[in-house]
UniProtKB/TrEMBL annotation, chain A:
<feature type="domain" description="ABC transmembrane type-1">
    <location>
        <begin position="69"/>
        <end position="280"/>
    </location>
</feature>
<feature type="transmembrane region" description="Helical">
    <location>
        <begin position="208"/>
        <end position="228"/>
    </location>
</feature>
<dbReference type="Pfam" id="PF00528">
    <property type="entry name" value="BPD_transp_1"/>
</dbReference>
<feature type="transmembrane region" description="Helical">
    <location>
        <begin position="69"/>
        <end position="94"/>
    </location>
</feature>
<dbReference type="InterPro" id="IPR035906">
    <property type="entry name" value="MetI-like_sf"/>
</dbReference>
<keyword id="KW-0812">Transmembrane</keyword>
<feature type="transmembrane region" description="Helical">
    <location>
        <begin position="12"/>
        <end position="37"/>
    </location>
</feature>
UniProtKB/TrEMBL annotation, chain B:
<feature type="signal peptide">
    <location>
        <begin position="1"/>
        <end position="22"/>
    </location>
</feature>
<keyword id="KW-0732">Signal</keyword>
<dbReference type="Pfam" id="PF01547">
    <property type="entry name" value="SBP_bac_1"/>
</dbReference>
<dbReference type="InterPro" id="IPR050490">
    <property type="entry name" value="Bact_solute-bd_prot1"/>
</dbReference>
<protein>
    <submittedName>
        <fullName>Sugar ABC transporter substrate-binding protein</fullName>
    </submittedName>
</protein>
<comment type="similarity">
    <text>Belongs to the bacterial solute-binding protein 1 family.</text>
</comment>
<keyword id="KW-0574">Periplasm</keyword>
TrEMBL record, chain C:
<dbReference type="InterPro" id="IPR050901">
    <property type="entry name" value="BP-dep_ABC_trans_perm"/>
</dbReference>
<feature type="transmembrane region" description="Helical">
    <location>
        <begin position="106"/>
        <end position="127"/>
    </location>
</feature>
<keyword id="KW-1003">Cell membrane</keyword>
<feature type="domain" description="ABC transmembrane type-1">
    <location>
        <begin position="70"/>
        <end position="260"/>
    </location>
</feature>
<feature type="transmembrane region" description="Helical">
    <location>
        <begin position="139"/>
        <end position="161"/>
    </location>
</feature>
<keyword id="KW-1133">Transmembrane helix</keyword>
<comment type="similarity">
    <text>Belongs to the binding-protein-dependent transport system permease family.</text>
</comment>
Length: 290, 437, 274
């Protein structure tokens, strides 16, 4: 039904976004690429020279490099796992009739309103601290040893904090999708005597697939860049146990003020993100077309 | 938000319009108590200088450092006065990023500044590049009641051997008391500030005269061995992610027998409004091992003017006021002597009223005087700085090494592995930066 | 009989949901509670009954002018959200209703503009902002936040628009509606809930953006993120004060979320229009 006319219009409507994002992508990318080939330390600006590929080599041979890539992927994977499964579960629950639904909803969504550094500070000190955190108090009242979260499970602790922040996002999107599930279809399935499990598998999950995909893709992009929470809690330690790629870049950029090295790190991060996105699109991208 | 704030906002906007030709100084500062207090007291300055308006940017230390460093290095020109540490001053002065403070006024009395502090702010040309707002060293804070219970007496100048013995004796984990609380969170200004300063007492150094890293030397192994063993035996849980504030919280709740950290902590732990142990705290110099150096660091937050500022004259006027004896007297009058910014002027420590109000005054002064940033280690070094190395690469390096040492503390790495890896990353970075030819 | 079963179900669901909600909400609740404690109380272990002092709020207000930061947060998050919607709605619309073979690639590419870690481009961006005189300007930061969130806005709108059944469009066309009429009378009413929820989400994202809003501002344009940064981790006790500052920073957005959540979730129920 689409005529030449509407197609032209469609292109026109798309043009501003594409144009702006193109500029937005190319200018910083070009500058970053340029700097990544320079020896440029912000604290020594007189000494700028061509570095060739040295910054890349230096970044890549950092003793923390491979672990940081692995940690980056673990954070993305761990948080996605918790938020998607948790999000589906909570969305299903919230879709049921209950008392005080409004309050429950706002409580569950609220972590999204907290700024990341504050969230990390609150979790580190008020919740997880083995000396005076709430969890330690609970453990002690049960007669157990408090857990030293950031020493024993640094990465897991960070995953928990980040997942707490992103769970509302997943819940909100999935809940919205769930509510658009046709009531008639649900009733029909119930009439047919389909149990909860089979309704979930054959009706709910297919219906949610596109929303789940959107949650996964959008969150992945954000999660690949997590570093504020690490900075506040562990500073990448102990050892490199909680150092991820953005933290490594942070260390290079804002502690070492090595603009060249940080730029090379940035380019490497973009490449990694593209690889991740490529596999994700192959795995779940087809759901977007539904 | 109440009506008053709204009115305040509106009226301050109106004021800004009214004094369109007044100069506005933008001041970047750390959110520590002394600076916050200064913000509240600036009326005394602005009434005397009606043509100068002040705008404050108050940020936490790490963010502030990022902000001002980025701005000064890119000549962003966002600030007229910056609060910077003793670490930044020599590096920035060398780059020509700071305006020398030549016109602080006749009654400023530069010679009243504590020599150790002043030396760190003076460039090779003998000019002062920043004025100290408050200074600190590190010292031992201990619980008099607990050390008595352990049957020991704390000397004024303890050795590490004594500290180790006392810590182990004071530890009573069933009662929730740890013999000693020390920094463990990775970071150049966190665990490495403490460990670098402590290593000086053990005869260690970061680099030899040719900038070769020294982590493969026995002195560093002794330092780290002692630290890890002591913390395992007598330290609190979660030590590897504890920084200044976490330890402060532990100490104030009565969970530490001893704590070695910044001298400014003394005013917190002795404040009965905040601390449950306020009347039981004693002080001693940071420990040594008999090699002639103590592990007490030296730090000051200073006010400086970035080169390129158009308002140098007004800025210098403000700096002269904020770091003067007059300001100290003003704080004393309004908030009491105990709240005067410490560690910058001899006259303060000669003041009887201050000595009375601050029981930790003498120990603070002795600690600051004992620190020698130009000769921090037992052996000769090519760098300046007690708990840091004043080179641009140190923040990144210190943090990486700090990560490794916190892993050793958490028991995820042996001391030998941590040191070997520290040696490797430091050599790598120093070679790259061109120090090691 | 059926009613009894459904009541029992409601009870079970209510209990389960409240437990989960309270666990998730606990850190925030505890922050709010802590904001009404004194600094000493705040570190004295688990205690959910504060003394009710407001000294932290007084201290916070004495140190910073909350209202100024608040105003900047409002301007920045609303401005950038409206700007982003203005650009994104047509784009999402065209991709949702006139998809081509490349639509999916374009979508993915748009998201990929967010792949560069902010820390890696701080210096280049800072230099650009300096050269254009945009440091500490609300306009510069609004544009920045718009561009940062644009891909997300387009994605969300695209997803919502895709939920609008195509048959309605066909029916309108059969009735001879013009393209303009189609947009104004048929599609817009159905798209509004999706736009509203995208808007809300984006306001939150902009409100909480804590990297650029701190790094690119000084005094004039600094929003609540900078306000928070001035209370986080000073030397000394700061829990009660940070909690008070956080409560003040979260409150507006929490209240906004509270008032809009009903419309938000119910409004998105497309089932009704099908």
């Amino acid at each position: 039904m689409a005529t030449e006319n509407t197609r032209g219009l469609a292109r026109m409507m798309l043009a501003p976004s594409v144009g702006l994002l193109l500029i937005w992508m190319i200018v910083p990318l070009a500058m970053t690429l340029w700097f990544s080939f320079q020896n440029y330390n912000l604290l020594n600006p007189a000494n700028v020279s061509w570095a060739g590929l040295f910054n890349y080599q230096y970044f890549y041979t950092d003793p923390a490099f491979f672990q940081s890539i692995w940690n980056t992927l673990l954070i993305v994977g761990g948080v996605l796992l918790i938020t998607v499964i948790g999000g589906i579960g909570i969305a299903l629950l919230l879709d049921q009739p209950m008392w005080g639904q409004g309050i429950v909803r706002i409580m569950i969504i609220s972590p999204f309103f907290v700024m990341p550094p504050v969230a990390a500070l609150v979790w580190k000190n008020m919740i997880m601290h083995p000396g005076y955190g709430v969890l330690a108090d609970i453990n002690r009242s049960l007669g157990l040893q408090p857990v030293d979260w950031f020493a024993q499970y640094p990465l897991f602790s960070i995953i928990i904090i980040v997942a707490w922040q992103w769970l509302p996002f997943a819940t909100l999107i999935l809940l919205t999708a769930l509510q658009s599930l046709d009531g008639e279809q649900k009733e029909a399935a119930e009439m047919d005597g389909a149990g909860f499990v089979s309704r979930f598998i054959y009706l709910t999950v297919p219906h949610l697939s596109r929303s789940i995909t959107v949650v996964i893709l959008i969150q992945t992009i954000f999660l690949l860049g997590v570093y504020a929470e690490i900075l506040v809690t562990t500073n990448g330690g102990p050892g490199y146990a909680s150092t991820n790629l953005p933290f490594l870049i942070y260390r290079t950029a804002l502690l070492g003020y090595d603009v060249g090295g940080a730029s090379a790190g940035g380019i490497i991060a973009v490449i990694l993100a593209n690889i991740v996105a490529f596999f994700l699109m192959r795995a779940v991208g087809k759901n977007l077309d539904k | 938000m109440n009506l008053r704030t709204l009115l305040l906002g509106v009226s301050s906007a109106a004021l800004l319009c009214g004094f369109a030709n007044a100069e506005t100084l933008t001041i970047a500062t750390v959110n520590n108590g002394d600076m916050v207090r200064m913000q509240g007291l600036t009326e005394a300055f602005t009434t005397k200088n009606p043509d100068i308006q002040l705008e404050w940017v108050t940020l936490e230390e790490n963010v502030l450092r990022e902000r001002v460093t980025t701005d000064v290095a890119t000549k962003g020109g966002q600030y007229d006065i910056m609060t910077i540490g003793t670490y930044e001053v020599p590096i920035w002065a060398k780059q020509g990023w700071l305006v020398p403070l030549d016109n602080l006024g006749a009654d400023y009395d530069v010679d009243d500044l504590l020599p150790a502090i002043r030396a760190g702010l003076t460039g090779d040309d003998g000019k002062l590049y920043a004025a100290p707002f408050y200074g600190e060293s590190s010292m031992v804070m201990y619980r008099k009641d607990l050390i008595e219970k352990a049957g020991l007496t704390m000397p004024d100048a303890p050795t590490w051997e004594f500290i180790g013995e006392a810590a182990r004796k004071m530890t009573d984990r069933a009662a929730g008391i740890n013999g000693i609380c020390l920094r463990g969170k990775a970071g150049w200004g966190e665990n490495m500030a403490f460990l670098t300063a402590t290593s000086n007492a053990f005869g260690a150094r970061w680099f030899d005269e040719k900038w070769v890293p020294q982590f493969d030397q026995p002195e560093w192994k002794n330092t780290l061995d002692m630290y890890v063993k002591l913390m395992t035996d007598a330290g609190p849980q979660g030590a590897s992610s504890n920084g200044f504030n976490e330890n402060l919280a532990l100490f104030q709740q009565g969970k530490c027998g001893m704590w070695i950290d910044a001298t400014v902590a003394a005013s917190f732990v002795t404040n009965p409004k905040e601390s449950t142990v306020a009347d039981k705290v004693g002080f001693a110099l940071a420990p040594d091992t008999g090699l002639g150096k103590r592990g007490n660091w030296l730090w000051a937050w200073n006010l400086a003017i970035p080169a390129g500022s158009q308002k140098t004259e007004a800025a210098e006027k403000f700096i002269a006021w904020a770091t003067s004896k007059e300001y100290a007297a003003l704080v004393a009058e309004k908030e009491g002597w105990a709240n005067v910014p410490p560690g910058t002027r001899k006259s303060l420590y000669e003041n009887a009223e201050y000595q009375k109000a601050a029981p930790f005054a003498k120990m603070t002064l002795d600690s600051i005087d004992a620190a020698d940033p130009k000769n921090p280690a037992v052996k000769p070094v090519p760098y300046v700085g007690v708990q840091f190395v004043a080179i641009p690469e140190f923040q990144g390096l210190g943090t990486t090494v700090g990560q490794l040492f916190s892993a050793a503390l958490a028991g995820q790495m042996t001391v030998d592995d941590a040191l070997a890896q520290a040696q490797q990353v430091t050599t790598r970075e120093m070679t790259r930066a061109g120090y090691i030819k | 009989m059926a009613r009894a079963v459904s009541t029992r179900r409601t009870v079970v669901f209510t209990i389960a949901a409240w437990i989960i909600a309270l666990i998730i909400f606990f850190p925030i609740l505890y922050t709010i509670i802590t904001s009404f404690k004194s600094e000493t109380e705040a570190i004295q272990g688990f205690n959910i009954v504060p003394s009710g002092t407001v000294e932290s709020y007084q201290a916070v207000q004495a140190q910073s002018n909350y209202f100024k930061f608040f105003l900047n947060s409002v301007i920045l998050s609303l401005g950038s959200t409206l700007l982003a919607l203005l650009i994104a709605v047509p784009a999402a619309w065209s991709m949702a209703f006139s998809p081509t073979a490349k639509t999916k690639d374009i979508l993915m590419w748009m998201l990929s503009t967010k792949m560069m870690p902010a820390v890696a481009v701080l210096v280049p961006i800072y230099l650009l902002f300096r050269d254009f005189g945009l440091l500490d300007s609300r306009i510069g930061l609004t544009v920045m936040l718009t561009m940062i969130n644009l891909p997300i806005v387009i994605w969300m709108l695209y997803t919502y628009f895709r939920e609008i059944p195509g048959e309605i469009l066909e029916a309108a066309r059969m009735d001879g509606a013009s393209l303009w009429g189609e947009i104004v009378y048929v599609l817009t009413p159905m798209a509004v809930p999706g736009i509203a929820s995208t808007m809300l989400l984006n306001i939150i994202l902009a409100w909480n953006e804590a990297f650029w809003t701190i790094r690119l501002t000084t005094t004039n344009a600094a929003p609540l993120t900078a306000f928070i940064a001035s209370f986080s981790s000073p030397q000394g006790l700061f829990w009660a004060k940070l909690s008070a500052a956080s409560t003040l920073a979260i409150a507006p957005i929490l209240i906004m979320g509270w008032f809009s959540q009903k419309q938000l979730v119910r409004g998105l129920t497309f089932g009704a229009v099908k």
